[in-house]
Amino acid sequence: MSARLKKIDDYRWEIPMTYKSGMRVPGLIYASEELIKEIEKDRSFEQVANTACLPGIVGAAMAMPDIHFGYGFPIGGVVATDAKEGVISPGGVGFDINCGVRLATTHLRREEISTKMHSLVNTLYDEVPTGVGSEGILKLTPAEERELMLKGARWMVERGMGDAEDLAHTEAGGCLMGANPDKVSKHAFERGKKQAGTVGSGNHFVEIQYVDKIYHEAAAKVLGLSEGQVTVMIHSGSRGFGHQVCTDYLEVMNRAMHRYKIELPDRQLACAPIESPEGQDYLAAMCAAANYAWANRQCLMHLTEKAMLKALNLSARDLGFNLVYDVAHNIVKFEEYQIGGKKRLLAVHRKGATRAFPPHHPEVPADYQEIGQPVLIPGDMGRYSFILVGTPQAMKEAFGSSCHGAGRVMSRTAALKATRGRSVVRELEQQGIIVRGATQDTIREEMPEAYKDVAKVVEVVHQAGIASIVARLKPLGVIKG
Amino acid sequence: MRILLKKRAGEKRYQVIGTTADIGLMISGNSLEGLFENAAAGLYSLITKPDRVRERFSREVSVEADDLEGLLFGWLNKLIYLYETEGLLGKNFRVRITDPLRLEAVITGEEMDRDRHRIKRLLKAVTYHQLEIKKGNGQWQARVILDV
């Protein structure tokens, strides 16, 4: 183990403040002995150290076990800054604002659909727009787009896509207050107008799964999960709309940094004081993009349900489609924490990290109060995904946060090289997983071996006590952009 | 212009590189404008096979920035924007960079056709990560990473 990292215990590693000049707090990485070696290899710890330099940062610059090298902030990073004195940074949220995951259960059992997967996946592919060379079903007027930015998931519910109960099972009710469409550029409006209700490409997907194993019986019961049950997981974000908001505000922040005399080791850490006009404008635009993403996932879920009803020739009652929860994993939220015996309001940046609130937290849905907030962790398309719940330990030491996924270990170019002459689709089919994607290279780039084993990632947060494993889900069919 | 293009045909104008999560380009050019033109060609090559793209119409764009890196950032982000909003796939590029930093370009290409163009991947944005432009031995070089 290098001198740059100090082992605190089997699942916690510290980057001392002395490691780099400019660090205002230490770095704290959640990882196992095995994972920390990979983290040192791709030097993502360097990025954790860089984020520790942000003005107003509180506690520690954190990283979850799925951490990998991003731009500026590592992916898997959690940075909390003081809401009054600290900075806000678009790079701490990511280009895909409110990229997130939702999970729905059904009344179906694996045996009922295992022979129908080709037809189900094909119907999904036809009915749920991926947004690659095709538009969504919705073409928004500027007025509709403005309204969507203000209402989030509720905008879709008002149009008959899902119901009000879905909002209770969505982080932040599927809408952040504070959105202001006037702070969103014309370019973002243009990119967003035909993309609402589209999956997107890269690591986004709609996946049909089954519950493979229950670890926490009581929590599984509350969430309505049982072994062999068919579930649906959706991973998508704010599409070109959010990407443009981030792009626009990176430029704004870059110019503002000189004015506020902020010097940082990496240009992509561009930021401004939260209370500054630039900070407030970004926040207002970020909320609009977060709401766009929640509306997007609400629409995708509705279209997925419709496609399943069509492919399986079922009534809605028999399908029993039900939203368990929806989480954001690229976002900044204002949350209260006890720091040194005092209650403080902090801007918690989660870039590739998921909120993990404990039982009895006021923001946890009423029906989940006893078990805590569901934490949805998608793995790669060949292995498994997990559901966890948040814990009091997460609130105490990790700003109510947990990991978000598997994290890549192989670059896209390396994955393309490794899959030359192979058919990843055929290999997955041989494992009983039917995959259909809209872009040529994406499935190869997203091959299972390109990712860490997500079981090893969730094991760390479970053992560290910041989230508790409830169930493991395995893929049956996937559509991708 | 045609002769110049023929001469350029043998050169390696760009190379695809990667970080753990994303994809990027190492670009070279005999002139600053050539660098920007090759960067555009490299970007579109990440989206689809260049030889399938035809020159059907022209589109003029302009970009302003405070420095060269910002200009490259703005130019490539503009191309992503035009692809997403108009389906524009660029085939040929004529770039003019004036002082103070302003880029004017003519892009010739066509609108994406799902029957002829197989899309390799979608690009979310250009990042500032490792963004670098430098000149050495009479050659301009740049590196840019894109979010996928």
Q: What's the rounded overall pLDDT mean of chain A?
A: 95
Topology of chain B as a string of helices (H) and strands (E): HEEHEHEEEEE
Gap between N and C termini of chain B: 34 Å
Q: How would you classify the helix and strand content of chain A by structural class?
A: alpha+beta
In helices, the fraction of residues of chain A equals 25-40%
Count of extended strands of chain B: 8
**Secondary structure: number of strands of chain A:** 19
Describe the structure using short key phrases.
heterodimer, A: 481 residues, alpha+beta, 7-stranded mixed beta sheet, globular, B: 148 residues, 3-stranded antiparallel beta sheet, 29% helix, disordered N terminus
What is the strand and helix layout of this fold?
The complex is a heterodimer of chains A (481) and B (148).
Chain A: E1 6-9, E2 12-15, E3 27-30, H1 33-41, H2 44-51, E4 61-68, E5 75-82, E6 87-88, E7 100-109, H3 110-113, H4 117-127, H5 142-151, H6 153-157, H7 164-168, H8 186-192, E8 205-214, H9 217-223, E9 229-236, H10 239-259, E10 272-273, H11 277-312, H12 316-319, E11 322-328, E12 330-339, E13 342-351, E14 354-355, E15 374-377, E16 385-390, H13 392-397, E17 401-402, H14 412-418, H15 424-430, E18 434-437, H16 442-445, H17 454-464, E19 467-480
Parallel strand pairs in A: 3-4, 18-19
Antiparallel strand pairs in A: 1-2, 2-3, 4-5, 5-13, 6-10, 7-9, 7-11, 8-9, 8-19, 12-13, 14-17, 15-16, 16-19
Helix pairs in contact in A: 4-11, 5-11, 8-10, 10-11
Chain B: H1 2-9, E1 14-18, E2 23-29, H2 32-47, E3 57-64, H3 68-86, E4 88-98, E5 102-111, E6 125-126, E7 132-136, E8 139-147
Antiparallel strand pairs in B: 1-2, 2-8, 3-5, 4-5, 6-8, 7-8
Helix pairs in contact in B: 2-3
